[in-house]
Amino acid sequence: MMQINYWAILVAALIPLIMGFIWYHPKVFGTVWMKEVGLTEEQMKGQMFGVFIFSIILSALIAFFLQMVTIHQFGAMGMIGGDEMNAKESYAAFMKDYGMAYRSFGHGALHSFMAGVFFVFPMIAINAMFERKSWKYTIINTAYWTITITIMGGIICGWYAPDGFYWVTQK
To answer: Which residues belong to the signal peptide in this entry (predicted)?
Structure first.
């Protein structure tokens, strides 16, 4: 049965917060971003604890979803309806031959990067156009999320227990 690595999900869920501290720092893109969204430093001050906690919870949902994008074995499991006990012998043979194929940081990063380009970018761009936001706003946010989910997907795909973390594909 395909195991969910909750440690990988938890660690990946922290990446948006860490990346946000860097990406939206005033010396990186924070000042430009605040100008593009029409916020001042005064408006940004205040109680952020709840925002950070809820952000981690929402990031865990993203991380959970990224498993399905980056780990092909979940697709194989889906093809049999999620129940290995009712699978045909060909499924067992397939999993024996390809069980951990393409489980690496690089593979997960690649699929997540593609999700950033082909899903995140259009979604942010559509919202930005209707909100009358600039292309600068679109690029800053799209780049942040694309880099962030690229790292998250790499962690999720490359870290599988109990074997450890793999940077390159193991067969």
So the answer is: none
Task: Return phi, psi of residue 100, to 5°.
Answer: -115, 20
Whole-prediction pTM value? Answer: 0.88
Q: Are 74 and 124 in contact (CB under 8 A)?
A: no
Q: Write out pLDDT tens, residues 37-89.
A: 999 988 888 888 999 999 999 999 999 999 999 998 888 877 887 777 778 88
Helices 135-158, 121-130: axis angle to 10 degrees equals: 150
Q: How far apart are CA 151 and CA 27, in angstroms?
A: 22
- The structural domains of the chain, with segments of one domain joined by +, span 6-165
Of 120, 169, 107, residue with least CA distance to 147: 120
Cis peptide before 162 (omega within 30 of 0): yes
